[in-house]
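Support reply, case 0932

Customer input (verbatim):
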Amino acid sequence: MTRPGEGAAPGAADAAVRARVHGRVQGVGFRWATRERLARLGLDGTATNRPDGTVEVVASGAPDAVDRLVAWLRDGPTPGDVTHVDVERAHAS
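Our regenerated output:
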């Protein structure tokens, strides 16, 4: 569900992002918090633990909502301790 002021105007082209989040992000509720943020921003996506200790976040939706998600990831959301985020952007198909 998108809250007022979040998401893009209807008809805006969708954007997609794949982010690899580094730091203390496994076993601390980080994926749960990320899934909540995805829902709050009205984005489709997943957050998955990777064997190397990172979390991979894949999301698509309104471009401004995708931008807000990336900013949130880079700010080092609680829980966890984010040290670095690698981001790949694309237009959703």
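We compared this against your earlier run and they match. Two observations from our side: The first strand starts at residue 15 and ends at 24. The mean pLDDT is 87. Please reopen the case if you see a mismatch on your end.
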